[in-house]
Amino acid sequence: MPFPFSALLDRPDIWRGDSLNRAGAPVVASGFPALDAGLPGGGWPAGALTEILPAHEGIGELRLLGPALAGLSRLGLRLAWVAPPHLPYVPALAAAGIDIAKLVIVRTASLKETLWAAEQALAANACGAVLAWLPVRPEGAKYAELRRLQIAAEGGRAPAFLFRPPETAGESSPAALRIALGTAGGGLAVQVFKRRGTPLARPILLPAMPPAVRGRNLHVDRHPTAAAAARDFPARLVHA
């Protein structure tokens, strides 16, 4: 009996270029309904690589990922941060609801070590999420190296977030989702410029940060008291 082509298009692992795929692949809710509405499946893709290109460092990375990371940590899952550019700021993490006891910080000395550590964290399938920060040019990651991360992510169910410089937006990437992060009206402007589905023409505007944390570098700390805060930081610290 011939297999109808329409049935093939209904498979959850097949997506059409003229539509937004919302079925099949697991996702992690972002915590922002407007953002989830613009993401295939309704959230951050699990078992896939997401690239985040902030306009500048500390623009609000934790504001963007905080709800998802908090939810994962409440489930008792580890959060691997590979090569964050600064010491994480403990009060900001706690304010975001992230259990810092579940945070694993991996320090690296080169791009090669960062890529290797991120790949191993994904391949181990022992984390709820893996975040990695790549250095600015001229030492940039090659497509083949990014492809290894995507393959490693596909072997598990954890979302993988890769922070890259904004100038890499024009480069080819195997990432399933790519977004640029800017600001608008005191909040965050999320431009989804690559996703599995139809292009997103306009940026998604997320609410402004609460006054208590506005202006603070949320994902890492450059405050003079960072060294003092580090003494009480219970996260595991490892070296690649």
Fill in the keyword field for this structure.
single chain, 240 residues, alpha/beta, 9-stranded mixed sheet, two-stranded antiparallel sheet, 7 helices, 21% strand, globular
In brief, what are we looking at here?
The protein is of the alpha/beta class.
Can you lay out the helices and strands and say which pair or pack?
Blueprint: H1 5-9, E1 27-28, H2 33-38, E2 44-45, E3 49-54, H3 61-74, E4 79-82, H4 90-95, E5 103-107, H5 111-124, E6 129-133, H6 143-154, E7 160-163, E8 177-184, E9 187-194, E10 204-206, H7 226-230, E11 236-239
Helix pairs in contact: 5-6
Describe, in plain words, how this protein is organized in 3D:
- With 240 residues, the chain is α/β, with parallel strands linked by helices.
- Helices cover 26% and strands 21% of the residues.
- The protein is built from 7 helices and 11 strands.
- The chain has helices at 5-9, 33-38, 61-74, 90-95, 111-124, 143-154, 226-230, and strands at 27-28, 44-45, 49-54, 79-82, 103-107, 129-133, 160-163, 177-184, 187-194, 204-206, 236-239.
- The protein has a 9-stranded mixed β-sheet, with helices on both faces.
- Strand 4 (79-82), helix 4 (90-95) and strand 5 form a beta-alpha-beta unit.
- Helix 5 runs parallel beside helix 6.
Strand content: 15-25%
Computed over alpha carbons, the radius of gyration is: 18 Å
* Total DSSP helices: 7
Low-confidence stretches: 5-15, 210-235
Number of strands: 11
- Give, in spatial order, the strands making up the sheet with the most strands: 10-9-8-3-7-6-4-5-11
Shape: globular
Taking the alpha carbons of the first and last residues, their distance comes to: 55 Å
The pLDDT mean sits at 81
